[in-house]
Amino acid sequence: MVEAQAQEEQKIDTNLYSRQIGTFGLEAMGKLMKLNVLIVGQRGLGVETAKNLILAGPKSVALYDPVQT
User: Cα separation of 54 and 37, whole Å?
Assistant: First the structure.
């Protein structure tokens, strides 16, 4: 059961991620899809970084902005 789940997680949608696979490679893309990310701070650079990272396809992205306006 655990092996079947691990194999299911390894499947990469090559149509959806074709450009990223061409840039990063298949092995790096597999690692990226398992990645959990925390981004702290959401000013101009943080927002753009979050957008680009989310579009790359990690497992999850958490945003934290401690500054209250």
Answer: 10
Confidence of residue 2 (pLDDT cuts 50, 70, 90): very low
Q: Which of 36, 32, 34 is nearest to 23 (CA)?
A: 32
- Please report, as a single letter, which amino acid is at residue 21: I
Q: Based on the fold, state whether residues 47 and 24 are members of the same structural domain.
A: no
Quote the tokens at residue 42.
């959401």
Q: What is the pLDDT of residue 34?
A: 92
Q: Are residues 41 and 16 in the same domain?
A: no
> pLDDT digit string (tens) for 36-57?
999 888 888 878 888 989 988 8
Amino acid, single-letter form, for residue 56:
A
Supply the range of the domain harboring residue 4. Answer: 1-34
